[in-house]
Every structure is written in C-alpha cells, then in structure tokens.
Request: fold
Amino acid sequence: MSNFGVTTIVCILTIVSILVTLSLSFLSLFSGEIANNDTTAKSPSLHLQRSNYGYHRPQPPYAAIQHTSHTCVVHRNTSSERVIHLPTAVPHLILIGAQKSATSEFQVLADKYINVITPLSAGRFEPHFFDFKVQGRLKKYVREGNVMESEKFDDEVCLFREKYTEFFNMSQVNNNTMSVVMEKTPSYMLHHNLPFIIDALCPWEPKILTILRDPVDRAWSHFRMVIPWKKWVNKNISLFETMVKGEIDSFILNGLLDNATTSLDDFKASLASTSDVSTSPFVFPNLTLEKSSQIIQNYKGDKKGFLIRGLYAPILLPWVKQFAAHDRLMVMKFKEVWNASNVDEVLRFAGVEDTSIDEHYDDFIRNRQGKIIRKANKNATGDRHANKGVQVPLDPTIRLYLKLFYQPFNRFLAQLLGEEWEGWGE
Reply:
C-alpha cells in the first residue's frame, strides 16, 4: 500500500475516533441532565458510605429469610453421643437494647404482623438468654474478641441451641416457613462478649437491632421505672440527683472524666443567677472511642447504672465491629419506632417478604401509649410500676447538666455510625 493510502486511512480513523468521543460526551451530559431532573433518583453514595468502623444503615433489597435446620452433636463421653436436630434454627432477629428505648413497644408492634413470631406467643417477654444463662458458662472461652473453640465448648453451645428454642412456640415456627422469629432483651448490648458468643451459638447469622433514645431521657425514664412515684415524689427527685452525683464520681475514678469542675449543686446555683453556660462543668480526658470502650469493658463500678447505659458509642463498638461489615446490624432512633414504615423496614431487613399486618394495626399504634398510661393510672398502688401513670418532668437544670456530660460521647456516634448521627442529642 502506498504512503498516501496509509496516511488517508490514519486520518479517517482519527476523525471517527473524535466523532465517537464527542458523541459519548454528549450522551453523558444528556443522561446526567435527565438524572438531575429525576426527583425519584437517590444518591447511592449517601446511603452506602460506611462509617469509620464499617457501619451504614442496611439498604434494600434485603435478602429473604433463610429457614434453615441445624444439627449438632453432644459428646457425652468417648463412647456416647447425642444428636440434637433443630428443624428451624431460631431466632432470625435479636433486639439488644437500649433499655427504656421503646424496645417493648417494638416487640408488641412486631407481634401484630402476621409473619412475625416473638416470645409473646409462648407467654414469654424477655428471655435474658445470653446474659443470664449463656454468658457465665461461655465467657471463659472468649479472649480479646476470639472464641477459643474446643470439644467441650462445642458441646455446651449445642445444648444451648436446643435450650434457646424453649422461648418460642416451635410448633408455630416449624409450621410457618414465611415467618421471622425475633426476641428482645435490652440488656444484651451492655455485654461486650455477647457479639462473639451470639455468632458462635447462632451460625445461621441472625440480624441484630438496636434502638437508641436520647441518653438523658433514657436515664430519667429508667429511674422512674424502678422507683415508686405515687408517694414521696420530691424525695425521689432528690434521690435522682444523688444518683447523678454518685455516677459522676465513679466516672472520674474510672477515667471517663478528669473532673467535674462544677458540682451539680453549684451548677444549679449558677444557673439561678445567669442563663449563660459558656464553659462545660466537666473536664474530659483525651479519650478516643476505642479507649472509652475499653474503660467501660473494664469498669470498676455499677455497669448497670442509670447514666452509664447511655454511653452508646463505646458500648456499641464491639457490636459494630462484629456485625456491621456484613450488614447484620441496624441502629434505629427512638422516634422511628412509632412509624409503621420503619417497623416494616426492620422486618424486611430481618427477612420478612410479606409484611401484612393485623387489620386493627393502625388503631393499635394510635392508642398504645394512651392505654399504657390509663392502665397505670387505674392500677397505681405504689408498687414499682406505678410511676408509668405519673408524668414528672426532669428539672431543666439537671437535664442541661447531663446533656453537657453526654455531649462528647454522643459525638462518637458519628464516627461509629456515620454522618446521619452528627449532632444527635445536642
């Protein structure tokens, strides 16, 4: 071929390449304009961006429920074995906390769904299976987040799997392959070893749900739950202040606080003369989320106090590390519970495909809180639950004092759970 012919072909190919490039650019701009004008389009990066610790709120499409059987063997001795067979391995969803954050309400609402089975169907409410029954036996096998398996460990785990089924109506479970089985025990989240124990005991990988409430509201509600309110209301408010002071002192001793430069009494006195709060009454050490979580795990004091339970980010860190990367953990906000679409979202996350509900569900949602209050007022006899009918607001000064205490720990939630939690509780 002559040099002229080769040159001509090269020129033609160059022109074609330029035209193709221009066409693709035009199409890209045109499709981008369409996408920008599409009000139904969603930004996947907004939903799929994970936090520093691997969490993002799980998004649809969710995997359908996998109703799997499970078989394990208990070695009684060298010559005897016992085979345990579970036709359906349960549960599929575990609600781990936080206490006084509408966990009971969520379970009662979920129980109204046709394809949800809860311990309520077996006359149970909170199994406390992992914290009261399992943890004491199995925690010796957990070291620094690793489970040290052995034949003895396998035997104990196998027996516990069978024991777990006693909290559910298994005939109902085995006859309904479309249903999700859930349980809730809101004290689970306080135990940093339980994520590893749950995974070892439940190889069918149940989903984990947590509901978080403003920690000040949670502490006040918790206090009112355990203290009788029909009589001595003023005395009990004073008792709450004493409790606050005691836990703050314990936080200082354990290293969660350096100091409380202003006591609660002095803080109340200063706000009586001025509304300016230019400086925090607390001095915090230079804590990271990891360090604060370690302090709570090794805490020398009451780990079930009213205030410590609201240190959500440090408490949830082991759960996020264990379950978030595989989208097995969902963290809801307290206010979301009363929206039926959010309950649907959680149940679909757990694997329910058909979220049909009881025909009276809407009325039930609307009247649930009112019924609780009316029943408590009617039955108030001074016992430990009578406070539910007594609406006593928390002193605004104490609320502000506690809000300032929780502030740096609430900010850890954005690190742990993502941008959605920035500014929460402030």
Remarks:
- Residues 47 and 59 are 8 Å apart (CA to CA).
